[in-house]
Amino acid sequence: MGQSALGKKIYIDMTAFTHVPASAAGSAAGTFNDADVGFAQMMIPHHEQALAMAALADGRASDARITSLAGRIEKVRGPEIATLKSWLKDWGKPEKASSDGMDGIDGMDHGSSGKSDMGGMMSEKDMRKLEAAKGPAFDRAFARMMIDHHQGAIAMAKDEKKNGRNVKAKKLADDVVKSQSTEVATLRTLLDRL
């Protein structure tokens, strides 16, 4: 068994645990453009905030469906962040967009209000409210905020699908649109019942 075959076997075994689509993982070296770079740079902090929101469910959520969804978010977003960071490294680009917008898409500044210009990002105040909530109040706040958060990610992913050039980045964007649209529908149903 050659070294590349061994590497592939290890990767395949890992996907069973990380849920990163095989077509989206690994090196994205090759053709890319500013839209691909901006997508990766923006999705990293966006996913990091989703992880922070999901982590709050432990000990605060009262509905098992919210806890389950938060667990799925934690399992998927972490590996996607690692993939996005590896792409940026392969492309020779920084993980964060520069303030002049030349390395990708601008709009990462949270400013004094704590609110990001990036779609779906919660302000620091929103995050403090979520952290302070417990039980059914947490469940409702989590569902509402995660719906908004996912809609921001879906918009970014649709932009990548339209304007990106890198095949793997566009495939990940397609996966984000599909999976997070499904989660939004689930959250809306849950919100109606909470």
Description:
The chain is mainly α and 194 residues long. Helices cover 67% and strands 0% of the residues. It has six helices and no strands. α2 (34-55) runs antiparallel to α5. The termini are far apart. Mean pLDDT is 81; it is low at 1-25 and 101-116.
How is this structure best summarized?
The chain is an all-alpha fold and 194 residues long.
Give short descriptive properties of this protein:
6 helices, 67% helix
Helical region count? 6
What is the β-strand count?
Answer: 0
- Quaternary state of this entry equals single chain
Would you tell me the structural class of the helices and strands? Answer: mainly alpha
Question: Which percent range describes the beta-strand content?
Answer: under 5%
Uncertain segments: 1-25, 101-116
Give the arrangement of secondary structure elements:
Blueprint: H1 3-18, H2 34-55, H3 64-91, H4 124-132, H5 136-163, H6 167-193
Helix pairs in contact: 2-3, 2-5, 3-6, 4-5, 5-6
